[in-house]
Design brief:
Layout lengths: L1 H10 L13 H11 L18 H11 L1 H21 L9 H8 L6 H34 L6 H12 L6 H4 L1
Helix pairs in contact: 3-7, 4-6, 5-6, 6-7
């Protein structure tokens, strides 16, 4: 980590103030904050001093949404596969069928249930995450401010509220 810290410290002048790549500072700052804690700390004596910063809080909230995401994928697969069994059908009838067919449509298998739900949820999350972070980065560059870590939380929460069969162009 010391090597990475030294490298980032060496190239940082190119991204700050009148540096060569100063318009790309929000992307550099996001990359730096991915590996290292935010440098600014509270100095005013009226605040509670704590090692927790907004970046750590947002990562915790983002990770806290994972159990709901995993249960949602399993639950979607369980209910859908049981329904498909009840109507004697082994095909979803859409493009997800090609992904689901890798593992299969076994309604008695935990892996099949989880995989079915993942085939519906993960493309939605990927699209929402990619588009959301791209817009956040674009606005951060144009407005010359830092990338807000809340964007990561917003992408997972929005993805969890989408119906599983939403067209991907509507999810963005």
């Amino acid at each position: 980590m010391k090597i990475l810290r030294n490298y980032l410290d060496n190239i940082k002048p190119n991204f700050v103030n009148e540096g060569r790549y100063n318009k790309w500072f929000p992307l550099f700052d996001a990359l730096e904050n991915l590996f290292f804690s935010y440098g600014k700390k509270t100095v005013n004596p009226i605040h509670v001093r704590d090692a927790v910063d907004i970046q750590k809080v947002m990562v915790t909230v983002w990770l806290a949404a994972f159990p709901a995401m995993f249960f949602g994928m399993y639950n979607l697969g369980s209910n859908s596969l049981e329904y498909l069994d009840s109507i004697n059908q082994q095909n979803t009838g859409d493009w997800h069928h090609y992904l689901v067919n890798i593992i299969g449509y076994d309604s008695n298998s935990f892996i099949s249930k989880f995989w079915f739900g993942a085939c519906y949820f993960l493309p939605i999350y990927f699209v929402v995450f990619t588009v959301g972070i791209a817009w956040e980065a674009l606005f951060a560059i144009v407005r010359k401010h830092e990338i807000n870590e809340g964007a990561f939380v917003s992408t997972i929460l929005f993805s969890l509220t989408c119906p599983p069969d939403i067209p991907l162009w509507q999810a963005d």
